[in-house]
Design goal:
Elements lengths: L7 H30 L3 H14 L20 H6 L1 H4 L3 H23 L3 H19 L4 H16 L3 H14 L16 H17 L7 H19 L13 H10 L5 H18 L7 H17 L9 H14 L4 H15 L8 H9 L5 H16 L21
Helix pairs in contact: 1-5, 1-6, 5-6, 5-7, 6-14, 7-8, 7-14, 8-9, 12-13, 12-17, 13-14, 13-17, 14-15, 14-17, 15-17
């Protein structure tokens, strides 16, 4: 190679550094906008929670003098967010944004080291940016699920249980990631660890409030979650998308409750895992199940919002990068990027966003298509499979 010529490895490192700089720059810009120009209502909700908790106020009642909407997270989340809440607003938003974006960067890099991870992070950028702009926790949730998977692969069960437990006390649905442990050895041990972690996290607010007060908070949270579980999708955009359940209501003009559709989706998700029980030691099966789970958690969530789709897109992007892509895979990915990631940007005219993408909640559709393809490939795997940037290895899953 002639002197001064850029080698492939150098070019790869250069692109990764450029992408990292874009992520860091986005964190700084969004933090400046929200910290100095206009605070986000979501962040105001998070920031006020700890004060409401220690003051004995009902976390789940309206507090119009502090913020709009309602706090819908656990009492434990109020405690976990306290170190951020006590900081000055600009620094608090900077720390929160960095935690969300950089933890997802780290988790994807652990899942897909090398060029595969760089490609995945580039494809995820717009979704991460949208999550930051709304001061949401969805990028954090995606990262925790990925880190739980990585920890299980490394047979670090306590780390996996901690990641799932923290995710579950931010938003309940990450608890579904516990199903990933089924395909690993020492399942009973993991179950005991997870229960222990959940109990410790549930009791964490007792450091600041009495048992009676904490029980009252959990009662209010449970009541609010029951209402949300039965809710129909809202207006899209900044409101609810409602997942598959709302799509069925909209296109078939039915008024079914959410739970039968959620149950059907859960059964469809579990069937390939159950059918291929003898192949649980195959890492390709486990990675594909993870990707399917990430999409499932959004499209069967009646409370899914536009920023929630960073979780589903994470699953789709990892699925695409992990296996040798086909033309069909590329088509699904392109539809996802167009209808999910680009549809809310200034590239798309506002009238299209309002009258087409929001009106028909189109973000759900490519994710449903991707999920059905994932499930079909889980049930009828193509061989040979290849993984980009990650070493495939087998597990002995005979231990209970």
């Amino acid at each position: 190679m002639a002197s001064g010529t850029t080698q492939p490895a150098d070019l790869s490192r250069l692109w990764r550094r450029v992408l990292f700089a874009i992520y860091i720059g986005s964190i700084l810009v969004v933090s400046a906008q929200k910290g100095f120009l206009r605070a986000d209502n979501n962040f105001s909700i998070f920031r006020a929670a700890f004060g409401n908790l220690v003051s004995g106020r009902d976390l789940y009642a309206p507090h119009p003098l502090l913020y709009l909407d309602l706090f819908k997270y656990s009492p434990t989340f109020a405690v976990l967010f306290a170190p951020v809440a006590v900081l000055p607003l600009p620094l608090a938003i900077l720390l929160w944004s960095a935690l969300n974006a950089m933890l997802l960067w780290y988790a994807v890099s652990r899942m897909l080291p090398g060029d595969g991870g760089t490609l995945a992070l580039a494809l995820l950028y717009l979704e991460v940016l949208r999550s930051l702009q709304r001061a949401q926790s969805n990028a954090l949730i995606a990262a925790l699920v990925l880190l739980a998977f990585v920890a299980l692969e490394e047979q670090r069960q306590l780390r996996a249980a901690a990641a799932i437990g923290i995710g579950a006390f931010v938003k309940i649905f990450p608890l579904a990631a516990a199903v990933l442990a089924v395909m690993h050895p020492r399942r009973a041990r993991f179950g005991a660890l997870l229960v222990g972690v959940l109990l410790l996290l549930a009791a964490l607010p007792l450091v600041f409030v009495s048992p009676h007060t904490l029980l009252a908070q959990y009662h209010s949270w449970w009541h609010l979650e029951q209402i949300d579980a039965a809710a129909s999708g809202g207006t899209g955009g900044g409101g609810l998308y409602g997942g598959v359940m709302e799509q069925l209501r909209m296109w078939l003009h039915v008024s079914w409750p959410n739970w039968p559709v959620e149950l059907a989706g859960t059964l469809i998700f579990m069937v390939p895992i159950a059918v291929r029980r003898n192949e649980w030691g195959d890492q390709d099966l486990r990675v594909r199940a993870l990707c399917s789970l990430l999409v499932y958690m959004v499209i069967f969530n009646p409370q899914s919002e536009s920023p929630s789709f960073v979780i589903a897109v994470t699953g789709i992007v990892i699925w695409y990068v992990w296996a040798k892509p086909t033309a069909w895979h590329t088509t699904v990915l392109v539809l996802t990027l167009l209808l999910v990631s680009l549809s809310s940007t200034e590239i798309v005219p506002h009238v299209w966003q309002r009258e087409i993408f929001v009106q028909y909640k189109l973000k759900t559709l490519p994710c449903v298509l991707a999920w059905l393809v994932m499930e079909a490939e889980l049930l009828w795997p193509r061989r040979p499979q290849s993984a980009k940037g990650a070493e495939v290895h087998q597990l002995d899953v005979t231990a209970p």
